[in-house]
């Protein structure tokens, strides 16, 4: 079992989330799972992305992994794409949160002790002031009604730094908030230990 994510090679961060590699490594360490990163060039064509993901799938099969779980909630076209991409790999796609109502899921995650920071917002649909906020009950209450509470349509992205399964929280701080390529990013970094 492993956690998998793609990293922009040029910036050494998760593409849309803008999360630093160091934080991903701390997250994986805290939940006790290995981290498999897939380096992507920048810019990255769909062909390049698919080739790198095929390599990841081949590694998984070689290491006797038989399934890959995704956090997709309700976007049927994304699910169909993932199923198609895995069809010939020997890996079974699993969608454990598929079609759970997102308002219910968001409230359940928060009530369970999940703690996250909003690392990216799409300012075309959500005010830039949401970048850097906590994903909490107040955040949900402040969301405009057309925004999915889990950001399933790409309205926002987040970084989980504590919650069920974490051995210890990751101490973080929110730094500079910048607008780049049509999105607003909050630079989340590891806090210095006191």
Give the gist of this structure:
With 194 residues, the chain is α/β, with parallel strands linked by helices.
Features:
194 residues, alpha/beta, four-stranded antiparallel sheet, single chain, putative n-type atp pyrophosphatase, domain 2, two-stranded parallel sheet
How would you describe what is shown here?
The protein is an alpha/beta fold. It has a domain at 101-194: Alpha-Beta Complex (putative n-type atp pyrophosphatase, domain 2). The protein has five helices and eight strands, in the order E-H-E-H-E-H-E-H-E-H-E-E-E. It has helices at residues 21-31, 46-62, 76-86, 102-111, 137-142; strands at 3-8, 35-40, 67-69, 92-94, 115-121, 156-162, 172-180, 183-190. It has a four-stranded antiparallel β-sheet, covered by helices on one side. The chain has a two-stranded parallel ribbon with strand order 1-2. Strand 3, helix 3 (76-86) and strand 4 (92-94) form a beta-alpha-beta unit. The protein is globular, with a radius of gyration of 17 Å. The chain starts with a strand and ends with a strand.
What topology does this entry show?
Elements: E1 3-8, H1 21-31, E2 35-40, H2 46-62, E3 67-69, H3 76-86, E4 92-94, H4 102-111, E5 115-121, H5 137-142, E6 156-162, E7 172-180, E8 183-190
Parallel strand pairs: 1-2, 3-4
Antiparallel strand pairs: 5-6, 5-8, 7-8
Arrangement of strands in the largest sheet: 6-5-8-7
User: Which CATH class of the domain at 101-194 applies here?
Assistant: Alpha Beta
- Helical percent range? 25-40%
Number of strands: 8
Strand count, sense and closure of the main sheet?
Answer: 4 strands, antiparallel
Strand content is 25-35%
Low-confidence stretches: none
Which whole number gives the mean pLDDT? Answer: 96
Through-space gap between termini? 33 Å
Number of discrete helical segments: 5
CATH topology of the domain at 101-194: putative n-type atp pyrophosphatase, domain 2
């Amino acid at each position: 079992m492993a956690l998998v994510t793609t990293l922009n090679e040029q910036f050494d961060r998760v593409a849309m989330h803008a999360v630093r590699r160091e934080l991903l490594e701390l997250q994986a360490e805290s939940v006790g799972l290995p981290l498999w990163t897939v380096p992507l060039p920048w810019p990255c064509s769909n062909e390049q992305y698919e080739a790198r993901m095929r390599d990841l799938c081949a590694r998984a099969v070689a290491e006797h992994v038989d399934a890959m779980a995704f956090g997709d909630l309700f976007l049927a076209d994304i699910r169909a794409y993932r199923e198609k991409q895995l069809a010939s790999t020997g890996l079974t796609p699993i969608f454990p949160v598929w079609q759970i109502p997102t308002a219910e899921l968001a409230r359940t995650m928060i009530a369970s002790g999940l703690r996250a920071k909003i690392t990216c917002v799409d300012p075309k649909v959500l005010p830039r002031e949401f970048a850097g906020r906590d994903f909490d009950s107040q955040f949900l209450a402040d969301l405009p009604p057309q925004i999915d509470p889990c950001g399933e349509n790409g309205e926002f992205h987040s970084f989980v730094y504590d919650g069920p399964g974490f051995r210890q929280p990751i101490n973080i701080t929110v730094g500079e908030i910048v607008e780049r390529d049509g999105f607003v990013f909050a630079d989340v970094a590891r806090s210095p230990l006191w």
